[in-house]
Amino acid sequence: MFFELLKTDKGSQARLGRLTTGHGVIETPIFMPVGTQGTVKGVDPDELKRLNAQIILGNSYHLFIRPGLDIIRHLGGLHKFMSWNGPILTDSGGFQVFSLAKLRRITEEGVHFQSHLDGTALFIGPREAVEIQRTLGSDIMMAFDECPPWPAEKTVVAEAVRRSIRWAGMCKEAHAGISAGPTRDQFLFGIVQGGEYEDLRRECAEALIELDLPGYAVGGVSVGEPEPEMMHAVASTTPWLPVHKPRYTMGLGQPHQMVKMVAMGVDMFDCVLPSRIARNGTAYTRTGTINLKNSTMKADPGPIEEGCRCYACQNFSRSYIRHLLKAEEILGLRLVTLHNLHFYLELMAQIRAALREDRFGEWSGQFLKDYRPKDE
Question: How many structural domains is the chain composed of?
Answer without folding.
Answer: 2
